Amino acid sequence: MIDTHCHLNFDSYRDDLEAVIARAAAAGVTRVVVPAIDPDTSRDILDLCSRHAGLFAAVGIHPNSSADFTPALLKPLADVAAHPKVVAIGEIGLDYYWDNSPKPKQFEAFESQLALAAKLALPVIIHNREASADIMDILESWVRGLPDSLKTRPGVLHSFSAPADIAERALEAGFYIGFTGPITYKKADDLRAVAARVPLDRLLVETDGPFLTPTPHRGQRNEPAYIPYIVERLAALHQVTVEQMAQATTENAARLFALP
Predict the structure, then answer these.
(1) How many whole angstroms from its chain centre is CA 47?
(2) Quick one: residue 238, left, alpha or beta (phi over 0 = left, psi -120 to 50 = alpha)?
(3) CA quadruple 7, 9, 10, 16: dihedral positive or negative?
């Protein structure tokens, strides 16, 4: 299995990172994509992933880190993205929940990084919080201009929590949909209904650790070893075996991110 989104560079993993990676492997999670949130974490994550065979990097500027964005940041980001351990640009997008960055700056950072991803032929990891309509308008326009090599794997809407019509638009545009711990929560029937309608070949599983810990560990720090809980819930929704869901989501992640 592959955890397609976990912030293993965060301080909450500092004291036991090796144990976290070992527990993941014991649970069958052999690869993890670690996304950045700003230029500094992009460099730090690349260093982390270079030291662990099963870790892969996504580099980029999160919308909540975009207040000071300038086009000058794209060159060093492109330099880091050239490393073979970098498999995506992300996480990038729009966030209208927090007030950490003005919308014009978020738009500038988002659209500039989408252009960079297209230039580098790298998929994108999309952060969307209460910005679904704007996100999809931008992504649908972006996808139309992509090279053929990227049109079939433009990216993922990570930790999906939007309505069903947004999932449908994303799927139509070629995107994958990532599901996290909330798929296991008691009151998440609407989210499960969306997940049940996503084709098997477009599903991804992720922790978004250290956040969004699945049941039965909710309230604790999240980690990649908990991916099987998400796989199990998706398997039940799609009426396939756990093994079939694990294989499908693993193949999907490997295809999207061109993982070895």
Answers:
(1) 19
(2) alpha
(3) positive
Domain hosting 159: range is 2-257
Neighbour tally for 141: CB within 10 Å: 12
Q: 3-state class of 69 per DSSP?
A: coil
Give residue 260's pLDDT.
86
Q: Please check whether residue 9 is in contact with residue 58, taking contact to mean a CB–CB distance below 8 angstroms.
A: no
Distance between CA atoms of residues 36 and 39, nearest Å:
8
In this structure, the number of other CB atoms found within 10 A of the CB of residue 249 comes to 28
Q: What is the CATH number of the domain that holds 190?
A: 3.20.20.140
pLDDT tens-digit map of 59-95: 999 999 999 999 999 999 999 999 999 999 999 999 9
Distance CA 181, CA 116 (A): 30
- pTM reported for the whole predicted model: 0.97
**How do residues 144-155 score in pLDDT, each as one tens digit?**
999 888 999 999
Task: Strand 155-157: give its sheet, edge to edge.
Answer: 2-3, 31-35, 55-59, 86-95, 124-129, 155-157, 176-179, 203-205
3-state secondary structure of 28: coil
Total tally of structural domains belonging to the chain? 1
Q: Which amino acid is at 93?
A: G
CA–CA distance from 229 to each of 123, 134, 240, 242 (Å)? Answer: 26, 32, 15, 10
User: Rounded to whole angstroms, how far apart are CA atoms 165 and 171?
Assistant: 10
